[in-house]
Amino acid sequence: MSERMVRKLDLKIALSKIRPHPSPNAYLEQYTITPEVAAELLYLAAYTHDDIADKTVADLGCGTGRLAIGAALMGAKETTGVDIDRAAISTASRNAERLHVTPITQWVTADITVLRGDFDTVLQNPPFGVQRRNADRRFLKTALEIGRNIYSLHKSTDNNRKQSGTNQKTKLYIDTPSRFLKKTIQRYGGEITAIYTLQMSIPHMFGFHRKPKHQFYVDLYIIDSQH
Ligand SMILES: C[S@@+](CC[C@H](N)C(=O)[O-])C[C@H]1O[C@@H](n2cnc3c(N)ncnc32)[C@H](O)[C@@H]1O
User: What is the pLDDT of residue 1?
Assistant: First the structure.
């Protein structure tokens, strides 16, 4: 598929057709990126940085496939989604059929660390490490081993300050890196080129969720691999 301009609204509408995971698992932090945040990330990657059209794209911890399928809709050469959970992968594959991008998408059921290859772009919304400490660190390491340009979402530091600062849905802030992530990214051979803060929301999914909808901020790290 070659480069083409996709209106952000059309992209959000397409991405909202992605069907959810039938039985999400809290331990794997299986919540889905919102169509709004996915569209912002894909727009930045495609039109600000030219990292999608005609590129090979990996989506690590792809879940139901929103980022991989979005990249395919925006003209990626080929997208590969990897998830450890078989039900997530079969849902992603059916979602790709529904959105007519099956020929340029591949789905792999595996731990991300077994993926080998050389991808132009890696997109990831990893577990934040709330259930398993440092889960996001493993994702960063793999992303930097296999990819050149990385778009990685992380739970934002200082959510309280941001929460009181705005109630806009997908306001973009330019932010500063967390010291921990900066050190981790440097250790694995990456250089942070930009950080944007976006508002994410997840519906009530698990027994421990207290509100019908949980809203919080995430930081999108854009990283160049120095390998
Ligand atoms: C926060 S969800 C994001 C799902 C999807 N990328 C999205 O944004 O809608 C994290 C995903 O990572 C997957 N995952 C967690 N640990 C993994 C691992 N070690 N290898 C592969 N996938 C993993 C989970 O099954 C889950 O689907």
Answer: 44
The gap from C-alpha 183 to its chain's centroid, in whole angstroms, comes to 21
- Domains of the chain (ranges; CATH) run 8-225 (3.40.50.150)
Probe ligand 1: pick from 79, 108, 112, max atoms within 8 Å of CB? 112
| CA–CA separation, 199 and 195 (whole Å) | 13
* Mutate which of 34, 125, 216 for ligand 1 pocket (most atoms within 8 A of beta carbon): 125
**How many helices (H) and strands (E) in the chain?**
7, 8
DSSP state of 48: I
pLDDT in tens, 40-82: 999 999 999 999 999 999 999 999 999 999 999 999 999 999 9
Write the DSSP symbol of residue 49: S
Sheet with 147-155: list strands edge to edge: 105-109, 78-83, 56-60, 119-124, 147-155, 213-225, 190-203, 173-174
Q: Please give all residues whose beta carbon lies within 6 A of any atom in ligand 1, as ranges.
A: 28-33, 61-64, 66-67, 82-85, 88, 111-112, 125-127
> How far is 11 from 2, CA to CA, in rounded Å?
16
Reported pTM: 0.92
